[in-house]
Amino acid sequence: MGVTVKIGSKYQVVIPLPIRKKVRIHPQNGVLVEEVNGAIIILPKPTSFTEFMLGLGKEAWKGVDPKAYVRKERTGWK
Where are the alpha helices (DSSP H) in 17-65? Predict the structure, then answer.
């Protein structure tokens, strides 16, 4: 479980120091805020979205031969 913090009157949240140090965020850095199944997720904004997304979903391709997959797809074009 995480650390309990209060929401200010302007809906601001202070990220506790130990967490700020772990994720290396500083004043004026951006964060991403998402809602997932009723939970609020706060992530440090990546410096490069390309690097952030690199490898996303790679587990879906485990055990798939890329050449065989492309061959099969191309047969459907005819």
Answer: 17-23, 49-53
